[in-house]
């Protein structure tokens, strides 16, 4: 399956995401804050990164901006998770370079569907 990076600072939500996607057969790395996510993204290739927007040290939006500025960063798919889910928030995330947006809270089945959609291109 795909190689994913999950960047989520909330332990319970991080475990839900991991359990859900590992059951689908994905190879998953974890980052606990935005800087750790960016470091891992720059050091290794991932098919998809799932980013929480509100993380310590660096937000998900900042991670996207740094990632998209790198030549290799344009091919990595990005799914942003956010508790801020107004239309303007979604538009801002997508215009910054995210490939998808998922509001919190979400169901595991919705997450699986969105991940499959993004991986299929």
Automatic annotation (TrEMBL):
Start and end residues of each Response regulatory domain: 3-119
A single Gene Ontology biological process assigned to it is: phosphorelay signal transduction system
Q: Identify the SUPFAM superfamilies for this entry.
A: CheY-like
> Is Phosphoprotein a UniProt keyword of this protein?
yes
Q: Which domain of life is it from?
A: Bacteria
Sequence positions bearing 4-aspartylphosphate: 52
Swiss-Prot/TrEMBL keywords: Phosphoprotein
Q: What name does UniProt use for this protein?
A: Response regulator
């Amino acid at each position: 399956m795909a190689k994913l990076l999950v960047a989520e600072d909330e332990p319970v939500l991080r475990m839900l995401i991991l359990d859900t996607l590992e059951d689908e057969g994905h190879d998953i790395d974890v980052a606990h804050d935005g800087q750790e996510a960016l470091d891992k993204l720059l050091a290794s290739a991932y098919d998809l990164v799932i980013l929480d927007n509100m993380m310590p040290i660096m937000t998900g939006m900042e991670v996207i901006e740094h990632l998209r500025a790198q030549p290799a960063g344009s091919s990595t798919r990005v799914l942003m998770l956010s508790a801020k889910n107004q239309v303007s928030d979604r538009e801002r995330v997508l215009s910054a370079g995210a490939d998808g947006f998922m509001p919190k809270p979400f169901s595991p089945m919705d997450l699986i569907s969105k991940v499959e959609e993004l991986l299929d291109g």
